[in-house]
Amino acid sequence: MRPVTNLDDYRAVSRPGANLPPEDSDLVGVPAPPVPSLGGGWCARAVDPDSFDLELVHGWMQSPHVAAFWQQAWSRELWDAELRAQLAGVHSLPCLVGRDGTPMLYLEVYRAARDQVARCYRARPHDIGLHVAVGDLALTDRGLVRSVLPVLTEALFEADPACTRVLLEPDVRNKRAIASFHAGGFEPVGEILLPGKVALLMIHSR
User: Fold this and answer.
1) How far out from the chain centre does Cα 24 lie?
2) Dist CA 104 CA 140 (whole Å)
3) Nearest to 95 by CA among 47, 129, 58
4) How would residue 26 be classed by pLDDT, with cut points 50, 70 and 90?
5) Cα 97 from Cα 21, distance rounded (Å)
6) What pTM did the predictor assign?
7) Where are the alpha helices (H) located in 39-163, listed in sequence order?
8) What percent of the residues of the chain are helix, what percent strand, and what percent coil, each to the nearest 5?
9) Which of 76, 113, 198, 199 gives 123 a disulfide partner, CB atoms 3.0 to 4.6 angstroms apart?
10) Cα gap 105→95, rounded to integer Å
């Protein structure tokens, strides 16, 4: 992994009020996160909580390798409410990503400027953030994430021409995820403090 050399491009500013998220007026006209239209044999779709998707996501979140970093091993009822809330809003969109009709990854596509991460770096209104989980332990360490990330970021840039940056904020202890994200085209920017974790901000620019 190359040394970080661009911290000042993104670093929070130590000036009162400098790191507040964009005002609501700055986000007028910024749409909800898009469902990326993937190529290369990959497919993505929004989660449907009225289908088996709910059982799938709930089950994945109970898996120790996911729960250790997501900390969302909630009940089925709580996940039902969470997915419906995301789908009804303009902040985050829960998706399933897979191949040949088989879901392999749980993905949350979110507007970083509407998220708590916007207090940690200088967010732009159209920045898109990602939360990524490989639900099945048997599918980890097989290059899925590093393979899909370039396809995913390109699709997000195409879906939102005003978006110039896609970001990830893995827990600094999650070395497996950090290595996969870096191999998938994301550069480390610096550590940030988020509720429940110290995260490494990683960014892929258009």
Assistant:
1) 22
2) 10
3) 47
4) confident
5) 29
6) 0.89
7) 53-62, 64-70, 76-88, 144-159
8) 35, 25, 40
9) 113
10) 8
Quick one: CA dihedral 200, 146, 149, 51, positive or negative?
A: negative
Residue with tokens 């021409």: 161
Mean pLDDT of the chain: 91
Neighbours of 203 (CB within 10 A): 22
Which helix H or strand E contains 100, and what residues bound it? none
Quick check: 164 pLDDT over 50? yes
Could you write out the DSSP letters of every residue in 183-205? HTTPEEEEEEEETTEEEEEEEEE
Domain 31-205, classified CATH 3.40.50.1000, yes or no: no
Domain residue extents for the chain: 31-205
